[in-house]
Amino acid sequence: MRVLSRLGLVLTAARASSGLDASDDTLVLLQTKSAVIQEDGHVPVVDTSLDKAFKGSPPDCQPALRMDIGKSTVVYSNLGNMGPDSGPEGILYRNVLADSGDEIDLHVSALSSYTPKQPQGNGKVASFGRINVATGTNVATKFSFYESGTQTPVIMKPFTMSFVDLDEQRDEGMGREYITIMDEHEYILTKSSTVLVTREDGQTTFSSSTYGSGQDNPRGAMALTKAQKDKSVQVVFPEIASFSVTLTAGAHPAHWSGNSRNILFAGQTNMWCEPDEPLPTGALCASMECPSGFKQKGKKKLAGVFCAGEDCTVEDDTKTCCTADLCSNTRLLTLSDDNIIRNNLGNQGPDSGAEGILFNDVFPHRGETIKMLLSAAEGYEKATKATNNARGNIASINLVTGGRADLTFKFFDENDKPVKVGPFYISFLDFDEHQKEGKAREYLTINSFKKYVLDDNTVVRAIATNDDESSMTFHSTTFGIGKDNVRNSKKLTDEQKTKAVSVLIGKGKQFTARFEVSPVRGSSGRFLQIAGATNQVC
Asked: How many Å apart are CA 176 and CA 284, to the nearest integer?
């Protein structure tokens, strides 16, 4: 790496004063009118607005000089008058320089409208301050320093404010976190940083570029792992009494987005200073053996992520270290003639007794018996000579042309108590219709799912029935007859895949779907084929 000087001001990573080996080049400190040229010649936008007199390494590595949010006390939390506390606006941190002997408070106030989703989490967590921001919104804030218990401003000596864990949702750019600094400053990033930097109208904006969730959050300001350092920025301010920062959470319209992001901030971190706190001693998630039906999360997501204790356990660490293995036998929905206890959908027979088709042990590799009741609301009618059945792990439900079936799928344990299952795939197969286009057309509307999968060459049309796409209608577009029905859910042909949709159902006790067939003269009914995960997704 080499440094390009602009207007005669040059600064590289001055680290000797920090107590670390100055030959270590894992960090770069960027200052006024300076740009760092990478080996590939790329020049990032790094203009800052510093006075010439303010330069050098961050001055607050010693504990006595370091801001420590973790040792402060949150007196009240009411940013933007959005609670959870009542009374004065803002968040007041009492005594943020606890080891210095100086009693100084930090007050964070909202300068614009503020929209949180979880304001009860505002304040602090571990050694970090935390502010919740709803996706698709931003809030302009002011960080001000006062003599403790008063409204008397304090001019701080040069100090560091770090913004850590800058990440976003799974879909690139969705729910992206942005930190925009308006006042003069320097900033520090790792050379392998995933934080993006832009400069516009005299402001510097730092933003995320990689996925993250609460499970990979750092444990302490002086205990960041390498992956956590790469998602952080340290901002170094000169002698000031306050500074302004805008916190933004990018939009994410999907219903599974979580609807908000938590912005974490602290004083100095071990990104620049040697850690003076014990590093996490727990086992790494990468060492965990996940339980049946789960698998380890990807290596990038687990980088630097620890289990709760010295050993990883199923009880404490499954959510942190593991993700659902959707193609495991444990999660395979199985519907066969052998496990039908009662066949009486809509009281249409062939069995008598209570309404519905009751399947026994629909997850046979789960280790516990789970029953599934498929029921139809009043008004369901099948063709006169048709019989609902299950063969080859595929259930077939008949519906008279021009009819509608409002279906409910409910799950019970062996004692007939409702039980949560999932996530798992359920597949709907053989979407086709009469040879006259649009006649006897098959429609399926399904609600409250996680996602759906169609073949790249699908002939099934998908239509969102609401704005957030949490309800979708799928319908046929091509002719088909009984001879081309699916016989084996694990051996769909390429053509059969084009007529199928696989739907991922989240964890729950039940879900609903609507099956409809448009009318046609001379046709008695159509079959909806239902299976678990097929070779379309597994």
From this structure: 27
